[in-house]
Amino acid sequence: MRVPYNSRMNGTGDELNNNDGAGTEPIPSEHDQERLNSWLKDRQERQFREQITEGTRLLQEGKTEEALPLLKRACELRPTDASASLNLASAYLLLGRYKLAVPVLEEAVRQTPSIAQLWINLGAAYLGNPILARDEQQLKAIAAFQRALQIDPFAPSAAYNIGLIYVDRDERDKAIAAFRLAAKSDPGDMDAKRLLKKLEA
After folding, report:
1. How many whole angstroms separate alpha carbon 9 and alpha carbon 128?
2. Positive or negative, the Cα torsion across 92, 93, 95, 99?
3. Secondary structure string (H, E, C) spanning 14-33
4. Share of residues in the chain with pLDDT > 70 (%)
5. Structural domains of the chain sorted by starting position, each given as residue range(s) with its CATH number in brackets
6. Less Cβ crowding at N or C end of the chain, within 10 Å?
């Protein structure tokens, strides 16, 4: 199976004092609240960029365990960001933690259903270990890969992965069709061509 990768804010404002000066509390003005909200938003944005950039770098360098907490934090800071979800799920897949990748990707495709790579990774997460995959896992994986192909007919490895599942299911004709599509969409895919030739022999 081919798997796709402390500051502090000082408020200002008028204070309402009682006669003896005890129990005074600053009352923030509307302008102060706007400044605070803007500062918090900027701070969260900086944190997200730092976490996603460093996490992605570590992931690309093969340091998946080190990347994982950074990518998790990036997703916490911006749960609807497709790239953060994709990278976190990729880390889970590379570590073989398929069940943890599933909810991340299911939420990601719910938020952004038009990204083929999310569906490819979801298919890989559903399937898990191909040797141990049950019938239900295989069918859910096929559906996810097919959704990726609907979005992008040239989606990397989607047709190839479908072909591998059909081989495991002893569905020869469907495997041949899938490998033909894989070879057509990527003429350089020698694995798909090799398996297609073997099945057609």
Report:
1. 46
2. positive
3. CEECCCCCCCCEECCCHHHH
4. 83
5. 33-100 (1.25.40), 113-201 (1.25.40.10)
6. C
